[in-house]
Write a structure and sequence with these properties.
Layout: E1 2-7, H1 14-21, E2 29-32, H2 46-58, E3 68-73, E4 83-86, E5 89-93, H3 105-122, H4 152-158, H5 163-172, H6 177-198, E6 209-211, E7 216-219, E8 224-227, H7 230-242, H8 249-254, H9 256-274, H10 283-301, H11 312-327, H12 332-338, E9 354-356
Parallel strand pairs: 1-2, 1-3, 3-5, 6-9
Antiparallel strand pairs: 4-5, 6-7, 7-8
Helix pairs in contact: 1-3, 3-6, 7-9, 7-11, 9-10
Bound molecules: zinc ion.
Amino acid sequence: MKVYLINTPGFTETNKVLDFLNSLNGPISFNYNNAPIEISDYAPSFDKLFAACKLYRSTNADIKEDDFVVLLTEKPNQSNWFSASKEKNIFVCTSDWERFSHIDTIYSIAFQVAENLIQSILGLNIDNIDEKYVHFMLKSCINDFCQNKFDIIAKMKSASICNDCLQLVRQKFEGNMEVFFQLKSILNRIRDIYELEFTNLQIGQLSNVVIHQDGTFRFEKYNLEMQLNPLRSALYAFFLKNGTIKYTNEDLRNNVDLKNEIIQLYRYFKRQIEFKNINEQYANLYNKINNDEIICTIDKLFQQEIDGRRPNYPSNKSEINHEINKTIQIDQVKDNYYITKGINNSVSLSNHYVKWADGII
Ligand SMILES: [Zn+2]
């Protein structure tokens, strides 16, 4: 399932919202095409806002009927709502959030995106409100109407869904629960951010990762660094380089292009350390032997489990994660962007945060 974010020119933080939404695993991929959509009215009607989504659909052949389009706009709307959905089109108002919530505005916006995706899949209709599932009395459910706009804080801090709505979730997401779990984990993460703010931890500021050829990974903003051996450097650099692209273990084992990419990276890191120690006249000969050894090491890395012994790859991956957790130990929300995730073999950090100290590979 694909969700396309678009924005009007006055909202400039869509990339941040996108990074956050993509930081949680699941079948939904969030995408962003940063060509802003102009809407001339100061406070457009719902029809105008949904028309902007439709226009975007009609001018982009990639968007399928089943995909969602979400317009993020700083403009207030005629009914003064935070957001609304109609079929698979959604708008979210991005301004004024600091009046209602003290956490970074991008999280409130992301909450609205996830909430509206759920509501749209539940089939809630703003033109014909079903009061069983849209609550005018506060229930701390994501489907609270929040006529008093300050009530929104209750739903964001609870991220919960009442029993009535949960029944509907079971019915409407049947066979598609992974989609629901991903959306719910976005809501849960934002609820957790309130908790973390409460304990006065800094969150949400992602750092560049600068990769050095000697296997140093430097987290610039936190002024922290970690050191990995050449093999782990190659693996981690591969994940960072490919950002949020997901690969299965089979892909890594069998796809020649991916394997060559890792071999190249391994060569890059290993040379820095080993060439220091050898005489230049032996360099060519050494390079030949070294190449075979490099290919063999990477082949071994992705071998299947042998004789009940844990294969090389998962233990290297968990060692990398261990080093990251040890390095950025103050904040689990931040850590989560940098570690390599379970079966997806990806990180949650966009690759525009990745820099190479010694030139681009
Ligand atoms: Zn409810």
